[in-house]
User: Which sequence fits this backbone?
């Protein structure tokens, strides 16, 4: 057998799934309700971090009930058009003898607003018209991009497994593989993988190797996967450094994307450096670093990156004269969610601008700038008037989408 | 189908309806009457009636007219089988020098079959060989009263309640751009409350001056975090662009009760920030840095405050 | 044909008619007489007669001539079956280094059948291998009186009313570029009012120097707000772009009655502003900052004023 | 054949030869033998032995490619008779986040027939859901002695004279990248003088760090002219371009004994110069200006020197 | 044939004639003698004999040679039916990384039928896999005396009147580039007056150093207006571009008798101006600002003058 353990020991039924009992019960109840007709929420959004078994749950319930599983995931192109075809499949009334169906829309937070344009609206339609239960999955349900979906779904969270659930699971697998393992070794794996059972089982497989035993020493070769937590350590180094070299070294510890790291530093600088004059210097170093990012984008001269990195780490560190005043907690950057999303609306805006331009004798650039805010405003205050304008412009669909996306951004 | 956008619905239908550009209108009508028509260059700020005048002048000659933007023009520049006679070209000053040179050659080559009406904001950005081929018409911004009057007429026709303050605010904000003014009017009319100063400020997506004022005050009191919250609010909630905010901070600085020296140093710092935004700097980052600069001033400024304060109302 | 360009209509018809480039003309005539003709490089500011000289020299040799710009040259660069003998290439310094290298090879290959006359503004931008293949002729800008005289002749011929101030303004603005001067004259002639200082400034898209002077004086007196109002006026009323205004402020500074030290510091500040505008800075923000800088000087300068004032008339 | 690349000639032929990653190697061999290999993520700096096969780095790797090419490949793999295919994705951290998202289910759906090996420089740029699907192997840079040893072996085999300093310099310059080190060795081997520190720096087009250090020290001591002479020397002796030097100055700044604040301000100035060169500034003018800037610091810095100096060895 | 280029006419005909690159010549001759020939990389500043050495080395082996530039190489890159054996590729460092990778593959594929000699200015810009396939030859700039001597020989042969000052100026301007020097000599020879300092400056489009010196001195004495008049003179009379002037000011600053501090601050300012002009700043505005900066130094500097003056002769 050449299967990785994650495949070999994938749960086949909900009973085999460890942990998350409450969530499983919730989903069972919701599925049962379909017998009495479509419930008020026609879809479930299963959410939780990587490796907690979201897809596995969906597959297991379908198998248990003998239903066909119709799956669309991020590896498929998910434009509105394509999703509409699924809608067809979903809205067909089941005949007396045909099997039931479960529609699985996997990884909806991986929808790409450009290539998958129209997807969110199409999914909403699928949910509205479907005669079959629909399961959506996502890592981050608060991703503004999928907010409209959130409102249309019953939210069910799947949590990471704790030691109490995870270790027996691992032991069960090891027993089938006839491997003896120390309790500490298993505990160490669980701790490193923080309840991500898929990682844990993969690591278990790697570590056991040809021998049929596993000790704590064996786990030493395991590398930590990057988790968001590691960023705190990096920030701590930066804010506590007194020299350029120290601060710069923080970067070696971080595998984080540079622009992302920049956002983290930007968010936390004011609370970490409360003195006004020091803050002024730190912020001006960040502004300077930001300028280098802009120059890199403009000239594609990537070698300029090192100056941006110097300034955003050492520039901030050296701005401080006073020593740190004890621990101040780090905050998650507010902007990380909204940034990528706002990029997605840009294309749409251009298209709408062109339509406005041709109707009102100006360029599309001016059309966007001049009319879009007004249309947006009317949309908020008088939907009927908005509809008239949108239809007159022949741009209702794209306008709808822009507006829904921008509402998300503002929220 | 009736135009849903008021700017289109109320666009003047003949040369006579064009507002407040009497000299231009009479020169144009004269040309139309005489049957001759040179290439024309219409220069002036946006929303002063250039495109409208171009379209109407063409109509009154009873000949085919094609309106186009620069991009489209470039695409169809070969013009081989032109079925039309007058070509209205918007934003001609957005063309590069090279494109203008090409346009100049086109004008020469088709001088027998068509005439150009070029619209631009700045005639100085049109290359001389084109300028000298064209009759120049300079459009001036419309006087405030006329714009108020015009808005009033539309509002009445549309059954919208207005206050004088509301209309005046529109005019102020539109800075002589009629299209912009009508647009604001239409947007504001969608609020059931009628058109007041308040609703207008809401529409223009500009923060109300008080918000910017607030932000600056937080910063000057040394409360950077509050100032930054306010900034984020402006960027996200009002959807303002960074340069909008810079411009507003710039106006606001003149109303702050701060010593003259601080004011001047702030204005220079604002110029700096504007410059960085233009270079592609990130709005939040650059504006935050500006606020941090203000906050750093706070200690200096607080001490001298009571004595030097100059209240500036404009 | 009414749309004809005056620059073409009044272009000198023989080498002798070329204005004020005596040495060049005599060297050229000598070459023509001797029947030999090297490749030539005509260098000098625009509108000093380079192309005209090239065309005429060709004509006087009685051989075919082709005139072309860089763009067109690139298109026809293969030159396979050239039926002509002299090729006048405008704007040769606009070619990239690569294109110039290609040109150099072309010059080598066709050295038996044709000669090149390359016109350029800066000979330093022509690659050395070409320079060394060419005889160099350096054209200098024309003196003001000659240009006025020339414009006067054309105006008379075209029945255009002029004032002396109007023509002088044209010359000033054209900065020794004859073609530009004639173009401005033609453009201004389409204005109904005849050619005065005022109409010229309108045509070229500049403010009247006195308006700029006024604005600067307000600022220097410390009345920043008045200066700013004037600035807005210039931006809106004249439809000026920011860089136009900066350049005009720069000229005006030399006429202000201010201590030399202030002047020097102003000129540095103007350089700053020019650069920021070039980078795309907001016109109002950047120019306001400049005025604020001036106003800040005022306090310093007022105190020393009575003693140091230098009246400058230019 | 003599022109063969040494990196190819001496490339590890089997997993056994991969230097100094013993643990990883043994683990991988075992997994391959048992046929139970999971998806793997190889993370580590370039030249540390991560496999380079499969899809080429220069291929486009947007979301569309992942949804078509990669998926197609995975599907096809299922048709062959081997238990599973291995698909190596080089530089996986260059994939956009969306593209990575699109990859995760493909990895799972074809688990039976194909395994992915993702190579990346920074594992932090791989999204968590993919990390969770992979066994992570971290490749660490090779220790210097091992690289020296390896180079020594090759040099001996190729009959190249080396000095210890020369090999050490290669290792330093290659920054742990074995492939790069071998390439430099081969290039330097052609110099008649054998491989010394000097020849290595010449080959890679860099100045000796001590020379750059010297230059900076002259400038910081206020001796601008000496610094500039050294600069010219560097440009000529090593055949460096301006941007080469700027980058080396940047590296050297971290080793100067100056206060930390000065260091940051120097970095800003260096970055500025670098950017100006990118934009086409004159090399000599800009580099002089940078040295002048350093020299200007000297007076400031000299006064605070004694107290704050931090000796920094890196 | 009179239009021939002197650089070709006087190009060395054998390896022995190549000036001042003894070591390189002997290594090359050795390779020729031994009959083996690796791919070669010739690195060094322009005009130091790289191409010539390449061509001659090929000739002396008695085999076919093709010389080509990057552009042409790209066009014929398929090389399918190469009838020759050695390919001399100029400007190899102008190739993009991708193109170099393609070249590398070509080198591998034709390694049996041909050898490459790649010429480049900076070896650091050649990708490592190519560098490691090539023997490196580093060319250094020629010493001034040798160049003067060489020019003298040509001038004599061509019957051109020269002055010593003239030849020295050529050498100075050519900065060690022999080809450039010969080209300037040829270009200057077409001026009727013979080759003096003056004619050389005219040909290369530079101002006379004394004129620039004068301008700077006016500014430093605080006489800004005179300095500016001189500036206009340079811009107009010599037809210099702004960046030309900046570069000349930069050279001149090192010869001014000013305190070191002033020099340093000037050089920083010059760097700024250079950059601004590159970015499109207005030439007159920016150069005026630079002069103003100088003039502003004057007051400072005058007071300390008597004590600190350093006379600098270079």
Assistant:
């Amino acid at each position: 057998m050449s299967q990785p353990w994650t495949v070999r020991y994938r749960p086949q039924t909900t009973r085999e799934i460890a942990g998350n009992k409450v969530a499983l019960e919730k989903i069972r109840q919701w599925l049962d309700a379909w017998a009495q007709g479509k419930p008020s929420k026609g879809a479930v959004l299963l959410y939780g971090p990587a490796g907690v078994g979201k897809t596995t749950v969906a597959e297991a319930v379908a198998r248990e009930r003998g239903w066909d599983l119709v799956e669309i995931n991020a590896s498929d192109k998910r434009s509105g058009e394509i999703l509409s075809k699924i809608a067809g499949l979903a809205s067909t009334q089941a005949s007396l003898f045909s099997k039931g169906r479960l529609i699985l829309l996997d990884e909806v937070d991986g929808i790409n607003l450009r290539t998958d344009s129209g997807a969110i609206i199409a999914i909403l339609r699928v949910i509205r018209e479907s005669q079959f239960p629909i399961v959506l999955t996502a890592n981050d349900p608060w991703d503004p991009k999928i907010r409209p979906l959130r409102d249309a779904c019953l939210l069910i969270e799947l949590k990471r497994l704790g030691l109490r659930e995870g270790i027996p699971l691992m032991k069960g697998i090891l027993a089938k593989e006839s491997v003896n393992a120390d309790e500490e070794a298993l505990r160490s794996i669980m701790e490193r993988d923080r309840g991500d059972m898929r990682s844990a089982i993969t690591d278990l497989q790697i570590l056991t190797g040809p021998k049929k035993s596993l000790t704590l020493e064996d786990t030493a070769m395991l590398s930590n996967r990057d988790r968001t937590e590691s960023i705190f350590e990096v920030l701590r180094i930066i804010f506590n450094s007194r020299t350029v070299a120290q601060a710069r070294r923080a970067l070696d510890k971080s595998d984080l994307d540079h622009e992302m790291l920049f956002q983290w530093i930007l968010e936390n600088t004011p609370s970490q450096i409360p003195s006004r004059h020091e803050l002024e210097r730190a912020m001006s170093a960040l502004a300077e670093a930001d300028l280098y990012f802009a120059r890199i984008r403009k000239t594609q001269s990537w070698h300029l990156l090192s100056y941006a990195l110097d300034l955003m780490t050492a520039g901030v560190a050296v701005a401080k004269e006073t020593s740190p005043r004890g621990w101040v907690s780090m905050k998650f950057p507010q902007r990380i969610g909204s940034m990528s999303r706002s990029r997605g609306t840009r294309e749409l805006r251009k298209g709408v601008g062109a339509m406005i331009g041709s109707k009102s004798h100006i360029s599309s650039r001016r059309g966007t700038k001049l009319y879009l805010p007004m249309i947006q405003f009317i949309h908020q205050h008088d939907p009927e008037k908005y509809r008239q304008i949108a239809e007159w412009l022949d741009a209702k669909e794209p306008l709808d989408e822009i507006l829904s996306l921008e509402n998300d951004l503002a929220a | 189908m009736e135009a849903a956008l008021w700017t289109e619905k109320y666009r003047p239908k003949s040369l006579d309806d064009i507002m407040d550009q009497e000299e231009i209108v009479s020169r144009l009508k004269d040309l139309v009457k005489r049957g001759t028509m040179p290439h024309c260059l219409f220069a002036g700020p946006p929303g002063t009636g250039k495109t409208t005048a171009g379209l109407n002048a063409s109509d009154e000659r009873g000949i085919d007219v094609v309106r186009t933007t620069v991009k489209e023009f470039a695409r169809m520049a070969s013009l081989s089988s032109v079925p039309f006679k007058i070509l209205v070209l918007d934003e001609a000053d957005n063309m590069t020098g090279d494109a203008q040179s090409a346009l100049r050659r086109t004008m020469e080559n088709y001088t027998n079959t068509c005439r150009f009406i070029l619209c631009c904001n700045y005639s100085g950005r049109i290359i001389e060989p084109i300028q000298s081929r064209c009759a120049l018409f300079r459009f001036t911004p419309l006087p405030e009263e006329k714009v108020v009057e015009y808005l009033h007429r539309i509002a009445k026709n549309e059954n919208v309640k207005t206050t004088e303050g509301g209309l005046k605010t529109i005019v102020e904000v539109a800075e002589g751009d009629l299209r912009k003014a009508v647009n604001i009017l239409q947007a504001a009319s969608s609020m059931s409350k009628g058109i007041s100063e308040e609703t207008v400020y809401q529409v223009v997506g500009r923060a109300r001056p008080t918000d910017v004022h607030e932000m600056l005050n937080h910063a000057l009191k040394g409360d950077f975090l509050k100032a930054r919250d306010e900034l984020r609010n402006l960027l996200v909630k009002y959807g303002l662009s960074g340069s909008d905010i810079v411009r507003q901070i710039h106006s606001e600085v003149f109303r702050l009760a701060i010593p003259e020296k601080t004011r001047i140093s702030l204005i220079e710092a604002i110029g700096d920030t504007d410059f960085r935004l233009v270079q592609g700097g990130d709005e939040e980052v650059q504006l935050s840095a500006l606020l941090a600069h203000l906050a750093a001033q706070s200690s200096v400024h607080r001490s001298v405050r009571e004595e030097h304060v100059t209240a500036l109302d404009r």
